[in-house]
Amino acid sequence: MKALRDILLVNWNDRTNPFAGGAEIHLHELFGRLAARGHRVTLLCSGYGDAPAQAELDGLRVVRCGGRYTFNFVLPGVLKRWQRDHPCDVVVEALNKIPLYTPLYSKAPVVGIGHHLFGGTIFREIPPPLSLYVYLSELGVPWAYRGVPMEVISRSTGDDFQARGLKPEQIRVIHVGIDRDQYDVSPDQPREERPSLLALGRVRKYKRLDLVVDAVVRLARERHPRLQLLVAGSGNYLDSLREHAQRQGAGDAVRFLGLVSEEDKVRLYRSAWGLVMTSPKEGWGLTCLEAQACGTPVVASNSPGLREAVRDGETGFLVPHADPAALESALDRLLSDGELRATLGGNAARFAATFSWDRCADETMQLLEETIAKREAS
Questions:
Q1: Residue 144 contacts residue 166 (beta carbons within 8 Å)
Q2: CA-CA distances (angstroms) from residue 288 to 50, 83, 105, 137, 273?
Q3: Which residues touch 59 (CB under 8 Å, ≥6 apart)?
Q4: 128-166 in b/e burial notation, b at 16+ Cβ within 10 A?
Q5: How far apart are alpha carbons 305 and 279 in whole angstroms?
Q6: Which helix H or strand E contains 209, and what residues bound it?
Q7: Residue 88 has what DSSP assignment?
């Protein structure tokens, strides 16, 4: 019988945090399964609002400290005290914002989970000096994480870490999963009668949803007069995107839904004619996989992460990032051909069905065991 492990997970947010996104879904799906298998999992994360300092969530013990802008400063002291009172077998750090440099102060061996690093993309998201701070904080990754096993969710992310100085043997690609009980094709829910495109997720400047708005406005004027774009989600760029749509004269061609429930999210996936994602860089693109599981084709930028989450010409279309003509052409092709949409949607559902959270948990636990064994042997 395999030993049950004490795992200390470190991430900026838990999935209830208003700033949580795909990385938090990934971590809770993954480590919630490990907790259900009997492993003890504690998540150290930042606090927010009136959230309690400790909570139970998805089988994880959640311990909150610091806040959105102070978590990385208070974490070293908190982690040291926690390990003194609660010895653990392994620390898992999720690198999806500012690196937390846990290998420098953790007594237990560390495994990294690399969702993605911003690199120069951060300058499109936030202004200096904060963008410069984030950029500079990533420069120490190859030094601080030398020899640390790094689980990455896509080959693109692995290539990024390797280009920054990590060795190939440190990196292991373990793709994300999909909840097949939640995301699937429903014969009881038809597609929208009106041509309908969906953009779903955090509304942030670098994701370039302005390109989608522009393409939809042009298509609605010239080719598809009943076309509508539904934007579901919130974020720090939402108000600016609304203003951009107004300036473009979008009218009722673009609707902003704000945050939606899980039930509404599935309904939107199933009813849309296609999902659009124009980010220049993602760790993977979990939203793309969820949509495809519901039989919905995806039009996405041919950018790191997304190019692995969508099979060009088979489950959707990949277009050069920030190429308005290419984006508009791909959307027009999808909207104009019902037989093509059906073929892409069927392929998309079959592709998404090959991904499993249980498989992801199995492969992650194997990496943790290897890391623990290596430390014990030394």
A1: no
A2: 33, 38, 37, 29, 13
A3: 32, 35, 36, 41
A4: eeebeebbebbeebbeebeebbbbbbbebbbebbbeeeb
A5: 10
A6: helix 209-222
A7: -
pLDDT at res. 327: 98
Place of tokens 């989608």: 212
Contact 288, 308 (CB under 8 A): no
Longest Cα separation, the chain: 68
* Inside any domain, residue 45: yes
Kindly report the CATH number assigned to the domain that includes residue 249.
3.40.50.2000
Please tell me whether residues 339 and 372 are part of one structural domain.
no
CA angle 254, 319, 304 (to 5 degrees): 105
Q: 3-class SS at 357?
A: helix
Residues 6+ apart with CB under 8 A from 123: 131, 135
Assigned token pair, 233: 């989600």
Are 215 and 107 within one domain? Answer: no
What is the domain range of residue 151?
6-177+356-377
| Nearest CA among 250, 257, 255, 256 for reference residue 216 | 250
* Single-letter code of the amino acid located at 120: G
Q: Residue type for 158, please?
A: G
CA dist 301 and 289 (Å) reads: 14
What is the three-state SS of 131-189? HHHHHHHHCCHHHHCCCCCEEECCHHHHHHHHHCCCCHHHEEECCCCCCCCCCCCCCCC
- Tell which residue, 124, 278, 299, 298, has the closest CA to residue 207: 278
pLDDT given for residue 331 in this prediction: 98
The angle formed by the CA atoms of residues 140, 360 and 137, to the nearest 5 degrees, is 15
Averaged pLDDT in 10-residue chunks for the chain of 378 residues? 89 94 92 98 97 97 96 97 97 92 97 87 79 86 96 92 94 94 91 97 94 98 97 95 97 96 96 97 89 98 94 98 97 98 98 96 98 93
**How many domains would you assign to the chain?**
2
* pLDDT at position 284: 83
In angstroms, rounded to a whole number, what is the distance separating the alpha carbons of residues 99 and 77? 16
- Six token digits for residue 304: 């790191």
Phi, psi dihedral angles at 295 (to 5 degrees): 80, 25
Same domain, 287 and 367: no
